[in-house]
Specification:
This protein is mainly α. The protein is built from four helices and two strands. It has a two-stranded antiparallel ribbon.
């Protein structure tokens, strides 16, 4: 009984060790790239203090964020019963998810994601464009 368990543990350890070695190599390359960037910055401006540049951290997208946008867009269009603009849909989704509706960066990002979802769903024949007050509105195809 312990032989298959031990074998699985040995395989898992070998996989993890391989991932560590690969990551260490990537980290060494990042340090080399950073040193090269610092050297170029200093060539352009020898007095520039590269140590004062703050690191920029980016949040990794959650697994369900992208697939759920299409479903959410279609759900909002079904409930609305009338054509909605991509911007209006994005605003509704931001509010529904309890996100900061006053954040312009978040609104731009959501507008892009909603627009991409709408265009994808148009190619699938799920939604269609309608003119509303001189602007493009979207509705469930049918």
């Amino acid at each position: 009984m312990t032989d298959p368990i031990l074998a699985a543990l040995v395989i898992r350890r070998a996989d993890l060790t391989g991932a560590i070695h690969k990551t260490q190599g990537e980290l060494q390359q990042m340090h080399a790239d950073l040193a090269s960037l610092d050297a170029v910055i200093r060539q352009i401006d020898p007095d520039y203090k590269v140590d004062t540049i703050r690191p920029r951290y980016r949040r990794a997208p959650q697994a369900g964020e992208f697939g759920s946008i299409s479903r959410t867009v279609l759900d909002h269009l079904r409930r609305a019963g009338k054509p909605l603009s991509a911007k209006d849909l994005a605003g509704r989704i931001v509010a529904e998810r309890g996100l900061n509706t006053g954040d312009p960066k978040l609104r731009r990002q959501m507008n892009k994601r909603v627009d991409m979802a709408l265009r994808y769903q148009r190619t699938n024949g799920m939604v269609s464009e309608k003119q509303i007050d001189g602007a493009v509105g979207w509705t469930i195809a049918g």
